[in-house]
Amino acid sequence: MFGAVAIIGLGLLGGSTGLAVQEYLPGVHTTGYDADPATRERARARGLVAQVCETAAEAVAGADLVVFCVPVGAMGAAAREVAGHLKPGVLVSDVGSSKQTVLSSLSEALPGVAIIPAHPVAGTENSGPDAGFASLFGRRWCIVTPPDDANPILLTKLVQFWEGLGAHVELMNPQHHDLVLAVTSHVPHLIAYTIVGTASDLEEVTQSEVIKYSAGGFRDFTRIAASDPTMWRDVFLSNRDAVLEILQRFTEDLTALQRSIRNGEGDRLFDHFTRTRAIRRSIIEQGQDDARPDFGRSDHNGQG
Ligand SMILES: NC(=O)C1=CN([C@@H]2O[C@H](COP(=O)(O)OP(=O)(O)OC[C@H]3O[C@@H](n4cnc5c(N)ncnc54)[C@H](O)[C@@H]3O)[C@@H](O)[C@H]2O)C=CC1
Ligand SMILES: O=C(O)C(=O)Cc1ccc(O)cc1
């Protein structure tokens, strides 16, 4: 296991990682840095890591593992700040929601350094240093995307690190990761951003009616559409090709449903909804629904 871990970016993911390491891997020393001074202050107050440093260079100086927990569009700039300050033999990783562009940004900024990106598929609509909690990763998937030439010892250590925080680990190539996450996460977020915007732009329906009568479906969309604007702007710009590919298919499928409604094709609608209901049921059977089982303590702060 790594002796010391540095976390760059102390928001939801960085804070949760720091808290989880301190709780579940107590022998591992944690340092951290965030570009925002107010976030560093909150990180100190909450004890997100053992030592909050004033520079990224100081945070990574003694680290065996450096985890970048910044928006995917900031990975390159954050990595450039630590170039030349890393310990020999260090492993650099991240938690970004897209993987191909992150791998190239980190590799460009840190030539010759071992880099193995990862994506814990765990989060909430909240962000910032007050949003993190230690059990975030419990029984959630963490997708690790090693480059072809990844050092197998460092890869094993990274897998053990995420397993130590309670995650199930799966290996995947970055390109496939980006396509899978485009359909399971990125496009669904875009759909939520769209429908909530559509409802708020309606002239015939007032804002207070939207709030008052928001039934389950719309409420769920508003939670997702409250997610961090910087993070999601970066996700869509960085995973552009896969998102556009899935959006194209989605639009075609939506048009087919639209046609069924216009033509009164009840059987087609019924068959489609029956198929999608089965998918939801198999997710629940595999224990992957949102009711997080009892990994760790009850320190989940009720968000998400
Ligand atoms: N929010 C979520 O549910 C999930 C997010 N992710 C990924 O995790 C990463 C972080 O997301 P969150 O923690 O949600 O965001 P966040 O907004 O809570 O935290 C990001 C932090 O990075 C800091 N930062 C930005 N640029 C920096 C730089 N150059 N150097 C140091 N600090 C810098 C910001 O000040 C902020 O505190 C993103 O790449 C996101 O795609 C992955 C899984 C879930
Ligand atoms: O809050 C939710 O429902 C999420 O979907 C959280 C989330 C956001 C981004 C990720 O890359 C992984 C998980």
List the helices and strands and how they pair.
Blueprint: E1 4-8, H1 12-24, E2 29-33, H2 37-46, E3 51-52, H3 56-60, E4 65-68, H4 75-82, E5 91-94, H5 100-109, E6 114-115, E7 118-120, E8 141-144, H6 152-164, E9 168-171, H7 174-201, H8 207-212, H9 216-225, H10 229-238, H11 240-262, H12 266-285
Parallel strand pairs: 1-2, 1-4, 2-3, 4-5, 5-6, 8-9
Antiparallel strand pairs: 7-8
Helix pairs in contact: 4-5, 7-9, 7-11
The structure holds 1,4-dihydronicotinamide adenine dinucleotide (NAI) and 3-(4-hydroxy-phenyl)pyruvic acid (ENO).
How would you describe the overall organization of this protein?
The protein has helices at residues 12-24, 37-46, 56-60, 75-82, 100-109, 152-164, 174-201, 207-212, 216-225, 229-238, 240-262, 266-285; strands at 4-8, 29-33, 51-52, 65-68, 91-94, 114-115, 118-120, 141-144, 168-171. It has 304 residues and is an alpha/beta fold. It has two domains: 4-172, Rossmann fold; 176-285, Orthogonal Bundle (6-phosphogluconate dehydrogenase C-terminal fold), CATH 1.10.3660.10. The strands form two sheets. Strands 3-2-1-4-5-6 form a six-stranded parallel beta sheet, sandwiched between helices. It binds 1,4-dihydronicotinamide adenine dinucleotide and 3-(4-hydroxy-phenyl)pyruvic acid.
